[in-house]
Amino acid sequence: MSFVDLLKELDDVFNVKIAAYCLMSSYYHILVQTPDANLSRSMRHLNGVYTQRYKETELYVTMRGYFNEPRNVAVYLIRHLRNDTLKQVGEQFGIEKYSTVSSIVERVKYEMKADKVLKKRIQDLADKISKSQRQT
Length: 136
What we know:
By secondary structure, the chain is mainly α. It folds into 2 domains: 3-58, no CATH class; 69-135. Helices cover 63% and strands 10% of the residues. It contains 6 helices and 2 strands. The chain has helices at 3-14, 39-53, 69-82, 86-93, 98-114, 116-135, and strands at 17-23, 28-33. The protein has a two-stranded antiparallel ribbon. A hairpin with a 4-residue loop joins strand 1 (17-23) and strand 2 (28-33). The longest helix is centred in the last third of the chain and has 20 residues, at 116-135. The N and C termini lie far apart (34 Å).
């Protein structure tokens, strides 16, 4: 079972809506909505199952220069929707240099210009996140 399968299971079992995720070498970032107000319970399940099923050697490791779409989109959305400083965004993702965050944001903008499907997916995510924030 892959990490993505585990996230799908989280949606099925706990009705958690996953907007974005980023799987790092030893941890992950996840942007979720919990319509049933069960964040604590669902995260306890995710962390427990994730820890049981995966060893450190099986975790996804990125390579420099590879377009890590989930992480990059999450970085872009946080910067775009919350207007956090580059440093603040970097801190959320364990990125020390703000210039790296800037490069990620610019890379996503470039990819969105080149890939209309990616652009639509990111716009749809941004719209859903904005809508859910207005409702809360």
